Amino acid sequence: MSGTGHTVKSYEEEMQSLNDNLVMMGSLTENQMADAMAAVIKVDKESVDKIVKNDGKINELRSTIDNQITTVLVKRAPMAVDLRITISTMKISHDLERIGDLAKSVAKKVKPLPVDLPNELIGSLRRLGDLVQKQLKDALDAYLNRSKDKAIEIWKKDEQVDDLTNLAMNEVATYLQKDKKNLEMATHLLFVTKNIERAGDHITNIAESLYYLIEGEYLEGARPKGKPVES
Amino acid sequence: MELNNSKIKIKAKNLNVYYGKKQALFDINLDINQKEVTALIGPSGCGKSTFIRCINRMNDVIDICKVEGSVEIDGAEINEKNVDVVTLREKVGMVFQKPNPFPKSIYDNIAYGPIIHGAAENKDQMDNIVETSLKKAALWDEVKDRLNEPGTSLSGGQQQRLCIARALSVNPEVILMDEPCSALDPIATAKIEELIDDLKKSYTIVIVTHSMAQAVRVSQKTGFFHLGKIIEVDSTDKIFKNPANKMTQDYITGRFG
């Protein structure tokens, strides 16, 4: 994992397995996010149960990774890059797990939505979902390639996530103003939007952990922020 | 972590050491800060013990050993011909890997140095030195009722603290420790580490250790030696979290060779 392998082969295998599990977790989370977004956009109520069920797999992997990390800490007392990989993997796995939870929450909101969701509300939501999915994919690729530059790029791009969130929320609010009987649907959509935005925040956490893993230093300065979300 | 605020106690400059034809140290340049713990790490045979033996001229006793270059303590060269090595070793004490108490009583182990250096004028003064030294080494409470028993009757950890007390009895300024815990169990090790932490308030300490965890726990600065060369010196925090040199990283993460 760092050019030369560990002298102790089992240590090498433990670190490799940790890496494999995190990659697997990332890939499942990516799928969950994609499925949840598709379910919302298409108001596909039938896919919801499957998405909710699949979240369990992500949680299981998180527990597995937690156990593996405890073992590595106890057995190996990792130093330098190994220490940074161990700590970052723990943090990233927790962020992925939270993203998984948020995808599940998004999916659960599909059930109470009307099947004929007005088109004017879907546009911004779709763009927000696409951007967050792209961010997640980029973050996982950056992790695999140990790309510091990509990590910084993702971190900075969260501003766009915030801006799109504002836009989507404003559209829902405007729609609600037209007719108060849209209240229930609007509330669900606001939650969906907010959850996607929060998934975006966890992705920037991943970028921060990755930067620390590579550089041994923390990303400095405040993250650029879009206009505050009115919720 | 800022390294340059502390006063330099020991300065090695272009230090080269040879055992016969074999060169053991190559152009070592290393500053050791006052009242701080400096840890030296590196694989066996990398020259870290040879280096600390240069600080109190212990290599003088090896016929085939030749030392070139400079070691200054408080700015004064210790390799000058007119330097009295007995006085030097009074100032620079040493503790070894295996506890090596004299085959004498606990009391006499401590009194031996002060007697040689004429540090006490009477029994009261000597009693005082013995008590103070044992207290500084956190051993007094365990041995105060058995000072006449042989030093070798103590446990390994106690013997090592006795050796530290013996080094302290002549009021040194520097204490060199060559793997002082490698023969000790974890509890005895913890006691020595606790002691090192306490002693650094008054003494400059250089410790050679094979335990990375120990280097992290006890030292503020760490130097990594490999094949007789210094590869990297930095704050201990930096060395073990994010070393600059790949060789250092490979060594401390167990990727060597």
Description:
The complex is a heterodimer of chains A (231) and B (257). Chain A has a single domain (9-215), classed as Methane Monooxygenase Hydroxylase, Chain G, domain 1, CATH 1.20.58.220. Helices cover 79% and strands 0% of the residues of chain A. Chain A is built from six helices and no strands. With 257 residues, chain B is an alpha/beta fold. Chain B has a single domain, classed as 3-Layer(aba) Sandwich (Rossmann fold), CATH 3.40.50.300. Helices cover 35% and strands 26% of the residues of chain B. Chain B is built from ten helices and ten strands. In chain B, strand 1 (8-19) and strand 2 (22-33) form a beta hairpin. In chain B, helix 3 packs parallel to helix 6 and helix 4 crosses helix 6 (156-168). The longest helix of chain B has 14 residues, at 123-136. Chain B is globular and about 55 Å long.
SSE diagram, text form:
The complex is a heterodimer of chains A (231) and B (257).
Chain A: H1 9-42, H2 48-76, H3 80-108, H4 119-145, H5 148-178, H6 183-215
Helix pairs in contact in A: 1-2, 1-3, 1-4, 2-3, 3-6, 4-5, 4-6, 5-6
Chain B: E1 8-19, E2 22-33, E3 37-41, H1 48-55, E4 65-73, E5 76-77, H2 85-91, E6 92-95, H3 106-116, H4 123-136, H5 140-143, H6 156-168, E7 174-178, H7 186-199, E8 204-208, H8 212-218, E9 221-226, E10 229-235, H9 236-241, H10 246-252
Parallel strand pairs in B: 3-8, 3-9, 6-7, 7-8
Antiparallel strand pairs in B: 1-2, 1-4, 4-5, 9-10
